[in-house]
Each structure stands twice: as C-alpha cells, then as structure tokens.
Amino acid sequence: MDIQSVRGFHDIFGKEARKFRKVTQTARNLLERYNFEEIILPVVEFAQLFQRSVGETTDIVQKEMFVFEDKKGRKLALRPEGTASAVRAFIQNKLYALRPYTKLFYEGPMFRYERPQAGRYRQFHQIGAEVFGVAEPHADAELIKLVYDILSELGIKGVVVEINSLGCKEDRKRYREALLSYLGGVRGELCPDCVSRMERNPLRVLDCKVEACKSATARAPKITDFLCEECREHYEKLKEYLKALGIPFRENPHLVRGLDYYTRTVFEAVSDELGLTLIAGGRYDYLVEELGGPPTPALGFALGVERLMLLLPDEEQKRDVYFVIPFGDVHAYALKVADLLRRLGKTVEYSYRKGGLKKQLEFANKLGVRYAVIVGEDEMRNGEVTIKDMKTGEQRRVKLSELEEGKLG
Ligand SMILES: [Zn+2]
Ligand SMILES: [Zn+2]
C-alpha cells in the first residue's frame, strides 16, 4: 500500500489495545471511586491558551506544538496536554459557580511534535484529573494516593513518589535570585541548553538530564529552604498525610516539572527499577486567575497511557467465550442459540468459518475459546445443542429449555 500512517501516529491493536484498555479502565474505575466526574474536552484549542498556561518558554510551546491556521487565519493548536483545556472549560462554563470545589477527569489523545522513539509518539494518550477550589494539603495527599492506587492496581511494583514544593510567587522570586547567582558561578559547566534556560527559566536547569549539569547543580540552593511560613506548613502537612497513608515517598529538591504553571506541591510517581517517571502532577494555584477566572487554587495529575502500557505483561484475552458452530443448514436455529446465550450474559462468537467440524474445532482452539457449542441438524430437530468444554474435552447434549433455566456449564 502506498499510503502509510503519519510518522509518530500509530495504530494500537491486539494485545496492545488490551493493555491500553487495562490502563484506561483501571484509572477510570479509581477516578470514579474517588468521585471525580468526567469532562470530555475538545482536541483543538486556540494556540494562545497553551502559550499563556503551559508557558511561552517551555519546550512544549516553543518546539512541540502542532499549530495551524484555520480558513479564517486563526491560530489553532492540537492540544499538547489537558490541564489548560480543563481550566479553560472550568472558567468558560462557570463551573466554579456550581459547587464549593470541583473534581474533574478527562481522557484522550494529546499531540506533541517530538522525535518519535520507543514508547513515544506524536499522538499519545493521557488520562488526567484536576481538583479546583481547594488550597489545603489534604487534597494534595488524596490526589497522590489516587496516583499511587492506580499504579498498585495495575500491578506495578517498586513505586516511589518524589515530592517537592515550589512555593508561592514570592518564594519563587527569592529563590530565582539565589539560584541565578549560584548558576552564574557554574555557568561554564552547564550544557548549551541550560545556559539559555538560565535566562528564560532557571528552575528548569535543575531537571536537566545531562550529567555535567546534574553534578554542577548538585549543591544548588534548595527551593524548600526559601519557602514562606505558609508554604512550609503546607509542605510539612502534606508529608504528614502521606506518611499516615503509608505512601512511600522521598523529597527531591530538583523536581521542578517542565511547565510554568506549577506552585507549591509537585510530584512524580517513579519506578527506581526502570528509572522512569510514571505519573506526574502538581498544584497550579494561579492558573485559573491568570486565564481570566476567579482566584481558584487547583491541582492535578496526568498519566501517559502508552508509558504505563510498557510496564504491563502481555496477556491473553481472558473471557469465557461460547463459540457457536453451525454445522449444516441450521443458521435459523443456531442464530437463535447464540442470541439466547448472549441474553444469558455470555460472550458468544458465532462461527463464520467454513468447513467441517474438525476444522471448526481447530479454529476454536486457535481462538482460545472456552466452550464450543455445536449446532447440527440432529441438535436442531431435538431442540438441543452440544456443548464441548475445550479445556477438558468433555462434551454433553443440553436442551435449549435447560439453557434458558440457566443450567450452563
Ligand atoms: Zn510561600
Ligand atoms: Zn543542561
């Protein structure tokens, strides 16, 4: 075929699709148990939304956004993340007027023009949650617990949550000065990216992955030493609650997250074994106001579905499938048998395979079905079916009336 999918945009099928659903269903089930409500957000927004929220100086906005003009020359973007859209929706729909606080989650594709590599795509999928209207740290603790629960439920072992506090605007300002003067002293050791980051967004130098930068910033001042009384107390309480919940965590003063909007708590659930960040999030207490809403403290997280899929084992489909094999000209009867089984709540595959019974049973084995339901002319005459247990090989004739009474294997 001469038309292929666009580079970085991929098909997800077979066992990968099952992993995809396992991640999204597990997250959704937990989000619902925490009583979050779903919001279904558009994929396209005005590019300006991300420039003003994610930040003009971030890699996402500078290099990675899919931006295009519509027919009226308006600058639109495929969303690179979900928080900005959720905040926009929260303000635009005046959700703040409905309740003292609001808990939303969203799911869907995000788009970033990154270099495609293993497990990284230009269209990728996220599930995210946002809490609007709560400043207190028990909300932070609950959100981190939710993240931890999702990873536990997925069977991912050895998860540790790294936390840090970025403080409020004033703390950030004081810290920025101290950090800049420190970075001035080690400027010669930094990578070229970090030298230019120094002017635009010096905090981001702290999470540079280049070894030289890591060792140059190892003794940099810590932002947690610059927190005001309120921010310090917020952070202390968070740690107290995480301990109470039994969540393994450690403080990481270099954890700053890539986006501009974070304040106070930031966190990343990481796997030390794999050296991977699994789920990340934090507080953004000024963002709602900065985008034109009423002052509203807020926090959230987002998980990358493809990222978590990498950690799941391959699994076969584990459904007890009833495989109805019509044998001869019996479709009028066999279709009704399949219908009856489905009404009884069973998963039923009606065989479209042509050929003799032996071929059909071979095909049933290949599909890994649990029961073959053989419907031949003799069964039809007697109002019966033959049910073969594909695991044990056991086979028995059953009256349809018995099936209806629920006497199934
Ligand atoms: Zn503060
Ligand atoms: Zn660097």
Q: How would you briefly describe this protein structure?
A:
This protein is of the alpha+beta class. It folds into three domains: 15-168 and 228-309, Bira Bifunctional Protein, Domain 2 (BirA Bifunctional Protein, domain 2), CATH 3.30.930; 169-217, no CATH class; 321-404, Rossmann fold, CATH 3.40.50. The chain has helices at 15-33, 47-53, 59-64, 83-92, 137-153, 169-186, 192-200, 211-216, 229-244, 287-290, 305-309, 331-343, 357-367, 377-382, 400-404; strands spanning 37-38, 44-46, 66-69, 75-78, 102-111, 123-132, 159-165, 249-251, 263-271, 276-283, 298-304, 321-327, 347-350, 371-376, 384-389, 395-399.
Strand and helix layout:
Layout: H1 15-33, E1 37-38, E2 44-46, H2 47-53, H3 59-64, E3 66-69, E4 75-78, H4 83-92, E5 102-111, E6 123-132, H5 137-153, E7 159-165, H6 169-186, H7 192-200, H8 211-216, H9 229-244, E8 249-251, E9 263-271, E10 276-283, H10 287-290, E11 298-304, H11 305-309, E12 321-327, H12 331-343, E13 347-350, H13 357-367, E14 371-376, H14 377-382, E15 384-389, E16 395-399, H15 400-404
Parallel strand pairs: 1-5, 7-8, 12-13, 12-14
Antiparallel strand pairs: 2-4, 3-4, 5-6, 6-11, 7-9, 9-10, 10-11, 14-15, 15-16
Bound molecules: zinc ion (2 copies).
Supply the CATH superfamily name of the largest domain: Bira Bifunctional Protein, Domain 2
Number of E strands: 16
Helix/strand/pairing class, anyone?
alpha+beta
The proportion of residues in beta strands is 15-25%
Instruction: Quote the distance from N terminus to C terminus.
Output: 46 Å
> CATH first level of the largest domain: which class?
Alpha Beta
Mean pLDDT: 93
Radius of gyration: 28 Å
Strand order of the largest sheet: 1-5-6-11-10-9-7-8
